Amino acid sequence: MMESVTGSDPSTRSALATLDLAAKKRLHAARVLLVGVGGLGSPAALYLAAAGVGTLVLVDDDCVDESNLQRQVIFDTADVGRPKVDAAADRLRARHPDLHVEPIARRLDETNARHLVAGVDVVVDGADNFATRYLVNDACVLEHRPNVFGSVSQFDGQVAVFAVPDGPCYRCLHPEPPPDGLILNCADAGVLGVLPGVIGALQAVETIKIIAGIGAPLVGRLLTYDALRMRARDIALPHDPACPVCGTHPTITTLEAVTVSCAAPAKEETMTVDELVAWRERQVPHVLIDVREPSEHALDRIERATLMPLGSLASMIDMLPRDRPVVVHCRTGARSARAVAMLRAKGVDARNLAGGIEAWRRAGAENSVR
Q: Is 209 helix (H, G, I), strand (E, B) or coil?
């Protein structure tokens, strides 16, 4: 039977007690902004309140819909139709009478983001759209506040800590919003109902670590979580000196609205896994390139794909053929969509592999993910 930590050694018990007391004081004094009280914000808010965070600022302009209940665990059927921030505030106060909750029933935008971010110690990004995600990131960088990022899509999730000294920001990973056509349907992309609970809880863990000053937060690292295969990966994410907002010579110094289109992509710019498999079977001439980072490529890759990281692609365009199509892939299709837009602007017949290597793996294509 495993011996408990607290029963193993008096000096350990004393150290843990001191750390716990100091951590509780810091948590009680902290103000945390939760952008979005949906699938990610719901579990994050519940766990942060339970951990003793003194003030939670909730920002969301949406109302509770019955379809939210399967993943937004802070609400129940009686809340349908109510503003999310009000319903969440009532639930949190009922469980934690000493908690101070500030519900703000409006959208975070370029007019209020910096003010809201400047008034807290840590920001938890639970946004469900790219436009808000970029505003959160830029405001956190400009106001020097940690940004605990989380995202979910279908069966995959990501967590990272951005906008801290010497660490990267979200734009180091994705300098610009995805081009028109990347998002087939912003409202109906779909997600496994329990997945936001996992990612939101991890965001709460990272927030507590930052406030309490314990452990090693996910700075310079992107944690990816694959629910289907129950696998988590820790990918190095360095700070980009050329980043437009946190780099050496930033070009973004004020907040501006970010517009992202949800229009369907042009058919000739995309390719499904089935179509690529058919090309390979018929030996249709083409080139397959992987625009992920070397660390990702080392973990798994599609056979016969040439590694050309997105950050280096501009200098490699002249190496690509003009006499046959170029198929581009990344992990899920986001970075490769940006690469395709860049290549097509230079006259390359480029196609984005929809869903990236994750879709290739799920399809079991040629059993060639290594």
A: helix
10-29 vs 195-212: helix axis angle to the nearest 10? 100
Rounded-to-integer distance, Cα 171 and Cα 349, Å: 27
Other Cβ atoms within 10 Å of 255 Cβ, number = 18
Residues assigned a catalytic role:
186, 330
Tens place of pLDDT for every residue, the chain, 370 residues? 333 333 334 444 444 555 588 888 999 999 999 999 999 999 999 999 999 999 999 999 999 999 999 999 999 999 999 999 999 999 999 999 999 999 999 999 999 999 999 999 999 999 988 899 999 999 999 999 999 999 998 888 999 999 999 999 999 988 877 654 445 444 445 688 899 999 999 999 999 999 999 999 999 999 999 898 898 989 899 999 999 999 999 999 999 877 665 544 555 588 999 999 999 999 999 999 999 888 788 888 899 999 998 877 888 888 888 889 999 999 888 788 888 888 988 889 999 999 899 889 888 765 455 5
Residues contacting 225, CB < 8 A, separation 6+: 156, 157, 158, 159, 195, 198, 199, 202, 231, 232
Q: What do you get for the CA distance between the two ends of the chain, in Å?
A: 39
- Contact, 289 vs 336, CB < 8 A? no
Alpha-helical segments (H) within the chain: 10-29, 41-51, 84-95, 113-118, 130-143, 170-173, 195-212, 273-282, 294-299, 310-313, 334-345, 356-362
Rounded CA separation 274/363 (Å): 8
Q: Specify the pTM.
A: 0.72
Best CA proximity match to 148, nearest among 174, 124, 129, 172: 124
